[in-house]
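To: structure subgroup
Subject: Chain for Friday's discussion

All,

I'm putting the inputs and outputs inline so they're searchable in the archive.
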Amino acid sequence: STMEPQNRKAEFEDAKAKAAEFLAKGDPQAAIDQYGDAMICAFDDTQRGAIHSNLSLCYLRLKDYAMALTHADVAMALRPGWEKGYFRHGEVAFEQRDYATALKDYEEAVKCAPNDAALNHRVKLAKEATEGFYFRQLLPGRDICVDAKNPVEAQIFGAAVQMQNFIYLVGDARTRQCAVIDACWDVDGIIAVAKKDKMSITRAVATHYHFDHVGGKPPPPFDALGIEVPGIKQLEASGLPVHVQEEDAKKLRDIGVKETSMTLHRDGDVLRVGDVRLRFVHTPGHSPGSMIVVVDGDNPGSPGGGAGIVVSGDTIFPGSCGRLDLPDADKERMFHSLAKCASALRDEMTVYPGHNYNGASSTIAKEKRDGLLRPFTKTQWEAMMGGK
């Protein structure tokens, strides 16, 4: 091209900017045409490599994987020391569920840019995906409930940080599906975490009905603000199936969760999320329909190092158990629930509680030694709990 260098540079930048605009608007085909124009004006391999990288992204959006890989390959050839080409190749492999290739590509990208947080995150995702188990423990103020958009949300987030609830994402890292357990306080934030992890939330599970686990109108004294806490109802409205123990189901209906969206569970029911099995164990006491969620160690990715994990809601805390001074709490039922947990769950199992009260995790063995899974008689329990 005999174009003047100044004009050529301007045309290159102009075509690139237009392409980026089309891509942002969700029109990758129009972006591809613009990048074609930019390619004609490109001066050197650095610029050409950048365009091929962007073309790879466009074709990936169109699900044309062959073209997406071709452009990534060209970007890698033109700019071998640049992370973007490897990254693009990895993104295509990941979407095709070729996780071993994606991992190799992401690791190559990290060699070029060791401190790039997004690339290191991709390496973590690809490793998980090759193993098969996806697990996240989310804490308000750290992972969610961080950037309030308005004063009401600021109040909700402030309460969430005080309550120290844990929210969990558990699922199949190969099929990229997960369940959210106890979705509350910041539904958009929870969805954003899953999206950043390339996961889709396909089900909502409630360990029990209390407002700090499922949302809704808080009971006194928290109701003074007159604010409704977002939670499971918002997820259900977007079409997500809800899973709850049958004895707590009525309380979810009370906060507006539709009967038709709910699956009512009994002790021992299993919910499959991809190839990962969530096993529900009924543990009444803190509430009538409290349940714990067990993921046994023989699931994909060997949860808990092969010993399994248990998301214990407000049944088991490190060193203690959920409150028993609430209107429908039951000390006697909790006694039996704790005894059942102690006998039915493997010692090496990791315990993930519903609040960050005394540590983010424990093991069944530790709770049998120092906590309320240790053996005691009914009389000792009643004495400990101040009467029946």
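Points worth raising on Friday:
The longest helix spans residues 5-24.
The mean pLDDT is 96.

D.
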